[in-house]
């Protein structure tokens, strides 16, 4: 397998850091509550923020490595060019999903900005979180576009091999 590109490695590192922060916050909160009866102030917000970062940045390596859940029902009966077409359709569907997700996030993100919504415990402006989500989503769209082009060229290469 090829080494992941820079965008994928950065996204992977960001999502890994987010899950470590989330786990350490939960562990610290539980230990401090049990031992000293002192909760970690803002633990709820930190865990929520970390989850958002982990999800939006963690999908990039999955799409890039083609590690999505795949059910090969028709692969055994279809010719190679039809499988290549299905692969491109799936890549296009991924792009459409991410674009739809971005479009459906716009309303709540704009309202959070317009009304000055803030997180419950730490008072962080929620539009900042929406901006982080959009940055992760942009990375997902870039990788999905690259996969669409790559799958198209792989399919053309396989077609040439089959014909020769």
Automatic annotation (TrEMBL):
Subcellular location: Cell inner membrane; Cell membrane
Main location as per UniProt: membrane
Membrane topology qualifier: Multi-pass membrane protein
Keywords, in A-Z order: Cell inner membrane, Cell membrane, Membrane, Plasmid, Transmembrane, Transmembrane helix, Transport
Keyword hit for Iron-sulfur: no
Gene Ontology terms: cellular component: plasma membrane
GO molecular function: transmembrane transporter activity
Pfam families linked to this entry: DctQ
Tripartite ATP-independent periplasmic transporters DctQ component domain residues: 22-151
Keyword Membrane: yes
Transmembrane segments: 12-36, 42-63, 83-106, 126-149
Subunit structure: The complex comprises the extracytoplasmic solute receptor protein and the two transmembrane proteins.
Similarity field: Belongs to the TRAP transporter small permease family.
Function recorded in the entry: Part of the tripartite ATP-independent periplasmic (TRAP) transport system.
Protein name as it appears in the record: TRAP transporter small permease protein
Organism: Falsirhodobacter algicola
Organism ancestry: Bacteria, Pseudomonadati, Pseudomonadota, Alphaproteobacteria, Rhodobacterales
